[in-house]
């Protein structure tokens, strides 16, 4: 063990000292970071040695994660929680790894976690699980475009397409194909079950094989394997409506006294802020994000857990709802599109692997897909905690004070 006070570490792990109080009981910020990390490791049983070294293995990263590598850009990693989650896959208390350079974010999420625990925990569920890829073809004419669009909706053609997909992957499965015709262009939005993988590589390879077979059966030419109807890493109403990745909803019912004590605001005021900011303000701005700061939390957890940070675009398509439940606050956040996975991509890097292990979701789950859904439930719960805290700060008029304290 590194040179640090074992007594302070034990107090941090037991809860006798809050994690942020490590700074008050250390001789330097570096020692505080070391003690805090050791306490979290003791609490969770997770090995966090690579996070302490700020390292990645070039032998691993340069094979599939980065080209022209010259080193690493480091992002501070904070911890929030624990947060109590009642999901179909995530059950119990979780500490949330958040990689960010924005002061006040971790503190805000941490406060939201505290509120959620005091309220008995977050209920969360994955409503839909699918990854999409949408090739576009140019048909000979409108008649041929309609023939293709009609054909992919038949059981016979769909079965053929599923069989082709099966030759490209042992894990992926074609769920459905939705055709869209514009002139003589045909867009085929294919939805796949990608199990524990985020799945973009998987569905791209499978879609390519399918399209090559369709070119043999119809008078069409593949123009682009990705047509922007997917829609990947861009704002799009289709992702809000149809979903993409792990569609997840989280909710918590916060007793009135907890809202007043922990958030220093009345539940009615939080409902009013949510209505005027997240609903009216977003509608006036014609925003796809009817929320306060979901992108903040999605980005911080995606970076920490080896996800593609660009998918924060889809992840920020969330709707925050606040309404009275008697005297209490019913608070929920709905995430139509949360692309993520626990295998592939950046999940194999050392520090990211440790964050996934911290959450108990590293690698493939049993049954397949369960780890990725568990991660989705955790990320959605973290997003809810962030929303709860920020709306509380707005309702209590404390936002500027918090940023002055933590953000400068």
From TrEMBL:
Signal peptide: none annotated. Pathway: Metabolic intermediate biosynthesis; (R)-mevalonate biosynthesis; (R)-mevalonate from acetyl-CoA: step 3/3. Keywords: NADP, Oxidoreductase. GO terms for biological process: coenzyme A metabolic process; isoprenoid biosynthetic process; sterol biosynthetic process. The keyword Coiled coil does not apply. Belongs to the HMG-CoA reductase family. This is 3-hydroxy-3-methylglutaryl coenzyme A reductase. It comes from Methanocella paludicola (strain DSM 17711 / JCM 13418 / NBRC 101707 / SANAE).
């Amino acid at each position: 063990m590194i040179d640090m006070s074992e007594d302070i570490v034990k107090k941090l792990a037991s809860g006798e000292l809050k994690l942020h109080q490590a700074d008050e009981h250390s001789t330097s910020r570096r020692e505080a970071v070391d003690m805090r990390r050791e306490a979290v490791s003791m609490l969770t049983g997770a090995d966090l040695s690579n996070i302490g070294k700020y390292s990645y293995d070039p032998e691993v990263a340069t094979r599939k994660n980065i080209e022209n590598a010259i080193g690493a850009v480091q992002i501070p990693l904070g911890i929030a929680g624990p947060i109590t989650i009642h999901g179909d896959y995530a059950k119990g208390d979780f500490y949330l790894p958040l990689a960010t350079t924005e002061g006040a974010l971790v503190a805000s999420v941490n406060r939201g976690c505290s509120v959620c625990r005091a309220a008995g925990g977050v209920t969360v569920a994955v409503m839909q699980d699918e990854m999409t890829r949408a090739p576009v073809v140019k048909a000979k004419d409108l008649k041929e475009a309609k023939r293709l669009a009609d054909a992919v909706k038949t059981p016979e053609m769909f079965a053929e397409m599923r069989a082709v997909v099966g030759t490209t992957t042992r894990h992926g499965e074609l769920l459905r194909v939705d055709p869209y015709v514009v002139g003589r262009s045909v867009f085929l939005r294919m939805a796949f079950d990608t199990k524990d993988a985020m799945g973009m590589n998987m569905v791209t390879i499978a879609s390519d094989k399918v399209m090559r077979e369709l070119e043999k059966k119809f008078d069409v030419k593949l123009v682009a394997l990705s047509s922007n109807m997917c829609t990947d890493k861009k704002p799009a109403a289709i992702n809000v409506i149809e979903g993409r990745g792990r569609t997840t909803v989280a909710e918590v019912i916060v007793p009135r006294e907890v809202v007043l004590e922990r958030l220093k605001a009345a539940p009615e005021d939080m409902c009013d802020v949510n209505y005027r900011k997240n609903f009216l303000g977003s509608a006036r701005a014609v925003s796809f994000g009817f929320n306060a700061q979901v992108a903040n939390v999605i980005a911080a957890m995606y970076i920490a857990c080896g996800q593609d940070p660009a998918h924060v675009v889809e992840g920020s398509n969330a709707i925050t709802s606040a309404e009275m439940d008697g005297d209490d606050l019913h608070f929920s956040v709905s995430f139509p599109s949360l692309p993520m996975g626990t295998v592939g991509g950046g999940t194999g890097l050392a520090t990211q692997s440790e964050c996934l292990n911290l959450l108990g979701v590293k690698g493939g789950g049993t049954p397949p897909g369960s780890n990725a859904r568990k991660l989705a439930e955790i990320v959605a719960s973290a997003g809810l905690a962030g929303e709860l805290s920020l709306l509380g700060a707005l309702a209590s008029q404390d936002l500027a004070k918090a940023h002055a304290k933590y953000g400068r």
